[in-house]
Each structure stands twice: as structure tokens, then as C-alpha cells.
Amino acid sequence: MTDRQNPAADLHAPFAGSFYDTQDLPPWDFYEDVRAAGDVVWDAGMNAWLVVGYELAREVLRHDQLYAHPYANMGATAAWLKVRSNNPRSFHFLSGEQHKAMHRWYMQDLLSPTWVEKYRPVLVDEVVRHSLTRLAGRSSFEVFGDFAEWIPLGVFARLLGLPDDDDTLLRIRRLNDVIAEFTILANALKLERDPSPADLKIAADAALAGQELDALLMPVVKARRAGTGDDFVSRLWAGGPAIFADWNEMDTLDACRRLLFAGTDTTTHAIANVFYMLLTDTDLLARVRAGDASIVERFIEEALRLNGSVQFRPRRLSADTTLNGVPLKAGDMVVVFLLAANRDAAHYACPHAVDLARDKPRDHIAFNYGIRTCLGAALARAELAAAVTQALALFPTLRLDATAPAPRPLGLLRRTYRPLHVRVD
Ligand code: HEM
User: Fold this and answer.
1) Ligand 1 centroid to 134 CA: how many Å?
2) Are 246 and 83 contacting, i.e. CB atoms less than 8 angstroms apart?
3) Helix (H), strand (E) at residue 303
4) Is 177 part of a structural domain of the chain?
5) Domain with 287 in it
6) Ligand 1 centroid vs 258 CA: distance in angstroms?
7) Secondary structure of 206-241 in HEC code, one letter for each residue
8) With bands split at pLDDT 50, 70 and 90, how would you rate the model's confidence at 9?
9) Which of 227, 231, 242, 332 is the most exposed, having the fewest neighbouring CB atoms within 10 Å of its CB?
10) Closest CA to 145 of 260, 263, 271, 257
11) DSSP strand E in 221-332: where?
12) Residue 409: enclosing H or E segment and its boundaries?
């Protein structure tokens, strides 16, 4: 893959910074620097265009053919394929009409808001309750590892009808973590140019973890082939032939893997950030404690807007175009910063502050925008609401542990303030 070699240099003053330099730091000042430089700037370190404005981000994400999802067409594609069971028709790689059909199926049926609402008590509320029982008798714990991580894992196990004993969940978590390491590198475009031996090892380990996950999930996939149950795997078998006439085991397996991959890490990090915000703002904590369910919902939308778990999404141009007056070339990578768009002063009054009374609390793009909008948004919102409501009710004295290491932002693609040691005595 060739370098673009700072194509903006002859048009504008070259942008000096690189998003890579914000690893493990709050990225907000960097986003404002990009905004000041014109909303679309060339990052020579990333070898990509950065987009930070709210309207421009939506413009890119709306045009899914022009700004194409890159997994099937990037330097890391061969590695992605290995991680996705060498299945070229994985949901991961679909585009155009096939992607739309798959997206619609999830949106209107498989994970629809109506379906999530119906199963919420057993699928979400019970899992959160169970996660809290693990903490019984403790006067302190760490929110990310001792609480948040168990919730999406437990929901995943219930969705698929897997055993949800600790050993199974921990094994799934370990494999998912290995794959997540690879996805962070690939999404951050770090495998596009001369990947280091260490990066290649991460990709190879992810492929092995994918194989182990396939082996773990395949028995469930085979067992539900009749498609008669109301669990997720049976529903995949029942509805799959409307997507691919020859829908098969690999397609069903892929859909299960997609849920794990897309829904676990993202939600864990989002839960942690929601608690970080509550634990570091006593006034906000008091307002959420005193409020009803609608205040919790509004707070969660603000938490997703300000500190959602996915900082950015990469796209690859399929043709030459112009964005905000900047000429872009076919093949260029464009990286849309969802969390920078969510703090755009041109769209939001008091963009960096929590406002529980916004007119349109859900118009942020923490869950993406357009035809690739997150299909687990209803489920993730239910998990976040249950985590906040149940934990605040159970722990009236929940507070940061002043004697433990303070939380700091960690990560690049997904950023979480960690560790989050709390006391509840
Ligand atoms: C707070 C938690 C979550 C966040 C912030 C989040 C964010 C996102 C984002 C930004 C995308 C767009 C990816 C892209 O096109 O480049 C996406 C897609 C997706 N998400 Fe989520 N997600 C979350 C939770 C979940 C959950 C719980 C599930 C399912 C169990 C899920 C399933 C999916 C799927 C299947 C897609 C692909 C949509 C498509 O291509 O049509 N997500 N998510």
C-alpha cells in the first residue's frame, strides 16, 4: 500500500500533530486543534485524513459506497480474513445491498428495540443482578474488571444459550481480548505500512483465538440447526436463508462471533466510563441518584456523547471527491472521529459539559450514523441503564477509593478511565 506523503502540504500548512500521539491521554485538545486547522486534515503519522466536525462526520458516514467500510479492502484484509474464519461473506466484509439486507434483519428483527425490551428482564436485568452478587460482602472493588466486564459477557452467553459459569465466560473473555488487540491495531491503520514483528504476532495470535472461539461455539451452532427455538442461534438458522439462500454453519457462527466482537468490549468500556463520570462529579451523581428512569436515560446519552467507547471509525475512498473543500483521492483512508463530532460546538451548546435537558439527547453519533449504525444500541443502552440503576441502588455510599491509584485515560480506539477502584462501605 503506497503512502500518500502529506498530500495536503501543497494546499494548506501541513498539520503538525498525529492522533497516535494521544495514546493513553485525553484526546480533546487534539480534536480542537484539528477543528481549528479546518475539520479535515492530513495526519502524516496515520497516513489518513482526520474528520472531526459533526456535519462532516455524518456526511462521510452517510455515503457508505464512496467512503467504504475498509475491512475488505485494506492492508490488514488478509489478517481480518484469518480472524473471521476465512469466510469472505462474513457480515464483517459485506457491502452494498447484501450489507443492507443483513443490517435490516438485525434492526427489524434479531436485535430490534422491541425484541430487546421484551427480553430485557431476563437478558439484561438478571445478568446485572448476577454480576452484582459477585461483589457481595466486599467493601471495595474495581469497576472495570470486577463489575463492567461481566455484564456484556453474561448477556452474550444468555443470547446464545451458552453456559454462563465463570470458567466459560473467562475463556471467552480471554479470546475476545486477544482479538481486540488486533482490531485496535487494524482500525488504527497500524497494519497498513510495514507492521512490526510484534504487530504481526498480535495478528497471528488473533487468528488462533478466532479458531478457538469457532471450536467453542460450533457445537451450539450445530445443535440449533433446526431453527425452532427462540434463542439467537435458532433465529439465525430460521431467518438466514432470506439473506443467503445457502445459509450455512459458517454464516451462523459468524453472526455469533459478530455479536461477541461488536458488543462486548464496546459495552464494557462504555459502562466503565459512565461510572467514571458519576464517581468524579458528586453533583451529577446526586442528580442521577435523585432522578427517575428518564434522568438515567438522559445521563447515559450524555455519557455516550462525551465519553462513548469508540473514538473513531476508518473508511476508504472508492473514488476521488472533495470534502469541505479538500480534494481527496480514491484509495485514501478517512478516519471519522465520532467523539470529536459529539463535542462540536457548531452543533452542541456547551459541547464539553453534561446537559441532562438537551432537546435531542440521542442525536450524538457514539453508535455511528447511517446504514452502519450500531445494531446493538438498544441492547447496550439497556445494559448501561441496568448497571447504573442497580449499582446505585445497592451501593448508597459508592465513591472513588482515595487511597487507590487514580483513574487515567487508557487506550487509543476505545478509551476508558482506569483503574476505577471504589469503596462501598
Ligand atoms: C456502548 C456500546 C457500543 C458502542 C459504542 C458501539 C458502537 C458501534 C459503532 C461505532 C459501530 C459502527 C462500526 C463501523 O461501521 O465502522 C457499530 C456497529 C455495530 N455494532 Fe455496536 N456498539 C456498541 C454495542 C454493541 C452491542 C451490545 C452489539 C450487539 C450485541 C453491537 C453490534 C453491532 C453490530 C452488529 C454492528 C455492525 C452494524 C453494521 O455494519 O450494519 N454493538 N457499533
Assistant:
1) 28
2) no
3) helix 293-307
4) yes
5) 7-423
6) 9
7) HHHHHHHHHHHHHHHHHHCCCCCCCCHHHHHHHHHH
8) very low
9) 242
10) 271
11) 312-317, 321-323, 326-328
12) strand 408-410
Rounded Cα distance, 176 and 107, in Å: 24
Nearest Cα neighbor of 204 from 378, 39, 83 is 83
Report residue 250 as a C-alpha cell: 459458517
Averaged pLDDT, 147-175: 95
**pLDDT per residue over 216-246, tens digit each?**
999 999 999 999 988 999 999 999 999 999 9
Give the nearest ligand 1 atom to 156 CA. Answer: 30
E strand or H helix at 200? helix 197-223
Distance 71 CA to ligand 1 centre (A): 15
Q: Tell the burial category of 219 from Cβ atoms under 10 Å away from its Cβ (0-12, 13-18, 19+).
A: exposed
Cell matching residue 396:
448508597
For the segment 109-118, the average pLDDT, to the nearest whole number, is: 97
Residue 157: inside a domain, yes or no?
Answer: yes
CA separation for the pair 109, 408 (Å, rounded): 39
Residues with CB under 6 A from ligand 1: 69, 103, 258-259, 262-263, 266-267, 270, 308-310, 313, 366-368, 372, 374-376, 379-380
3-state class of 400 per DSSP?
A: strand
> 181: which residues sit within 8 A by CB, 6+ positions away?
202, 205, 206
Rounded distance between C-alpha atoms, residue 61 and residue 104, angstroms: 17
- Alpha carbon of 377 to ligand 1 centroid (Å): 7
Ligand 1 atom having least distance to the Cα of 99: 41
Q: Is residue 10's pLDDT more than 60?
A: no
Cell of 193: 505500512
Mutate which of 155, 266, 312, 342 for ligand 1? The one with the most ligand atoms within 8 Å of its CB, which is 266
Question: And the C-alpha cell for 318?
Answer: 472508492
The total number of structural domains in the chain stands at: 1
DSSP state of 318: S
Residues 285-309 pLDDT 10s: 999 999 999 999 999 999 999 999 9
Residue 2 belongs to a domain: no
Establish how many alpha carbons lie within 13 A of residue 399's alpha carbon, considering only the half-sphere containing its beta carbon.
9
Q: If we measure between CA atoms, which residue out of 109, 84, 279 comes closest to residue 183?
A: 84
Q: Which of 256, 303, 257 is nearest to 279 (CA)?
A: 303
CA distance 261 to 421: 26
Report if pTM > 0.90: yes
Please indicate, yes or no, if residue 23 is contained in any of the structural domains.
yes
CATH (domain of 195): 1.10.630.10
